[in-house]
Design a protein that fits this description.
alpha/beta, Rossmann fold, 7-stranded mixed β-sheet, 19% strand, globular
């Protein structure tokens, strides 16, 4: 029975009945139809009242939104939700408007128990489901190829639909906001390609959904945005004969918090959060989280609720959402903190699962077989959803590393005319490789900006590997570098300071410009900062080289008091960073040093202007006409009698012809 149907407050009837029968609240397993407690009935009334305070009653539950033909119609597109994906959606939205009747099946409950989702480490999903708090935060720690982006595409489309179905058709009025800025459903990632993948998922869901077909116009679809029309937008377009793209925008953005400030964010999706920087700066995970999450507090509305005493109260509820998805990395940073604190936050749902527990098409055995070259720690991190115990983070974004190695680009034995080449050597003799990288800068027309731009191309990657009892012969390396002088126009060759003074002197004597770079902590931080900027702006092209790629993928950043430290992992299959050091050194010197070359002709200002009385006037053959001002010398020449040779009578100047 509903509250308005009773002559006396319904809550008093419940309390009297409980008191008379001595009943106590109990949690009933979901294998049977759940028995309602006082707390459940109060929450039910809260939900019923809140549905009348802004969020439309026409909102379907999340499963119907996915499956019914009038919404996403996933079945009609040949798409079936994985059981774990469906379970997470049901738990995340249970109790919210449209989802108050969501229940778990016996099969879903058993699946949770079988894969350990009833433990705190993996999210304690069954206990979370029994709580009455509506979830606003979702933290998904799933292995690669688990369909994280697909799931988030559904969530973003569902949240867009909730805004479109708000009471009155005007979400600005519901939340008391200015309509000068659109309401944003935002995806943020460390790299543009990764953000684009997440955006493509929600874009596909929207474009192929029957529900959204009349919610956008062609002009509202952009490269990284989709504008959606609310009912109020449509009225305004008809009334004012205008063409508003839409008040709701689904958008992607790069992880630079300063460029994203000022948006009215209804849903914030942080993609691959574990790869965000742990150091300071506009792209760090904590900075992005701190800068953007306050805007989520904007989307609150006041509702009427019944408290435990049966009295009507006003309560503020928030409808915005925060979704963080990623494969894990080191045991530090924002993502690890959100995971560790999940059990302390009532409205945060967390789930941590390996790929083979989410994607039924994958098994642990098949994944191990297809990734035999991956060491055990990396496999557990990428597919097993286990945080690495190293406490470090990957220095480079994985997608950026993969993208800079170009198919079809080959290492060069000789340079091309018109280019200046730069080389850096990272010396070692016994424990590490002696590495050499040669690069050059080339200019090209950027078709996106229609302006001249540059890129750095790697021409040679070479390393000498020491053997047990047989260190690298420095003379062999020196001879190789000196021989490069005949093949490349070398602007500069730089060395790590370690044991390189003799090699530098030898190169200089052979005519190779060379100098020593002091590889201090500050210098190494400077060259790697430069390299990271070049990588993130897609300005480095490298031929396929397995060791170089492996070093870049496994390179670790460790935050220090003065900045950060860069190093190779201490265990695992890849424990060197020599080639990456050489690449960073070569790029840095090419960006900051002037190439040494032979002097050319140029105008020189001597700083002294001779007096007109001191100017000596000469003929083309060099004979002196006189000294002094030009007019004076000219008059002297007019009055001067030519001297003749006593023997021949020929003027002396004739002998100079």
């Amino acid at each position: 029975m509903f509250l308005q149907e009773l002559d006396i407050p319904f809550i008093q009837v419940i309390l009297m009945t409980v008191e008379a029968n001595g009943l106590k609240e109990q949690i009933v397993p979901r294998t049977k139809k759940p028995q309602k407690t006082v707390k459940d009935l109060i929450q039910k009334m809260k939900t019923e009242l809140s549905s009348k305070d802004g969020i439309g009653s026409s909102i379907p539950d999340i499963v119907s939104f996915c499956e019914k033909k009038e919404y996403l119609d996933l079945g009609g597109q040949g798409i079936t939700l994985y059981p774990m994906q469906k379970l997470i959606l049901k738990i995340f939205y249970r109790g919210s408007v449209g989802n108050k009747n969501i229940t778990l099946t016996e099969e879903e409950i058993q699946m949770c128990k079988d894969i350990g989702c009833n433990t705190e480490e993996r999210g304690d999903l069954l206990s979370k489901f029994e709580q009455t708090e509506v979830f606003r935060q979702l933290i998904l720690i799933w292995g690669r190829r688990s369909g994280k982006d697909f799931l988030c595409g559904i969530i973003m489309a569902y949240e867009a639909m909730r805004l479109l179905e708000c009471a009155g058709g005007n979400p600005y009025a519901i939340y008391g906001l200015s309509d000068s800025n659109p309401i944003t459903i935002l995806t943020v990632a460390t790299a543009a390609p990764q953000a684009q993948l997440a955006f493509n998922e929600v874009k596909t869901r929207i474009l192929y959904s029957p529900y959204f077909q009349n919610k956008f116009i062609p002009d509202g679809i952009e490269a990284n945005k989709i504008f959606l029309l609310t009912p109020q937008d449509k009225k305004n377009n008809d009334l004012f004969k205008s063409r508003t793209k839409g008040s709701i925008v689904v958008e992607v953005g790069h992880s630079n918090s300063d460029a994203l400030l000022g948006k009215q964010i209804f849903v914030l999706l942080m993609d691959e959060v574990a790869s965000y920087k742990t150091s300071g700066g506009a792209s760090s995970g904590e900075r992005i989280f701190t800068a953007l999450t306050p805007s989520l507090e904007t989307f609150g509305r006041n509702i009427k609720v019944i408290d435990e005493n049966g009295e009507e109260q006003t309560e503020r509820v928030l409808d915005s959402k925060l979704v963080c998805i990623s494969s894990p990395r080191g045991e530090e940073g924002l993502f690890h903190r959100l995971y560790k604190e999940a059990h302390l936050v009532q409205d945060r749902l967390m789930c941590k699962l390996p790929t083979w527990h989410v994607n039924p098409k994958m098994t642990e055995k098949s994944l191990r077989k297809n990734n035999e070259s991956m060491n055990a720690e990396d496999f557990l991190m990428e597919y097993g959803a286990e945080f690495s115990g190293t406490g470090g983070e990957s220095f480079f974004v994985r997608d950026k590393v993969i993208g800079c190695f170009k198919a079809g680009l080959e290492l060069q034995e000789t340079g091309r005319a018109g280019f200046t080449y730069f080389a850096h050597l990272d010396p070692a003799t016994t424990s590490h490789n002696y590495a050499l990288v040669i690069i050059h800068r080339e200019r090209y027309l950027n078709t996106e900006t229609n302006k001249s731009d540059f890129r750095i191309v790697v021409d040679q990657i070479k390393y000498w590997k020491p053997l047990p009892g047989k260190p690298v012969r420095i003379e062999e390396v020196d001879d190789y570098v000196i021989n490069l002088r005949r093949k490349f126009h070398l602007g500069m060759v730089t060395y790590d300071v370690w044991n390189s003074i003799q090699s530098i002197e030898k190169l200089k004597k052979a005519g190779v410009p060379a100098k020593c770079t002091h590889f201090s902590a500050q210098y190494k931080m400077a060259i790697y900062t430069q390299l990271e900027v070049l990588m993130n702006s897609d300005k480095i092209w490298i031929p396929r080289h397995k060791l170089m790629q492996d070093e870049m993928l496994h390179l670790q950043r460790k935050t220090t008091v003065k900045g950060f430290r860069v190093s190779a992992p201490k265990d695992g299959d890849v424990r060197t960073d020599d080639l990456t050091d050489a690449l960073a050194g070569a790029c840095y010197i090419s960006m900051n040093a002037v190439a040494h070359k032979l002097p050319g002709a140029r105008l020189v200002n001597m700083g002294v202007v001779p007096s007109s009385n001191a100017i000596n006037w000469r003929s083309m053959s060099g004979a002196s006409y006189g000294t002094g001002p030009g007019g004076q010398v000219a008059r002297q020449m007019e009055t001067r009698q030519p001297q003749r040779n006593q023997n021949t009578g020929v003027p002396p100047s004739a002998f100079n012809r």
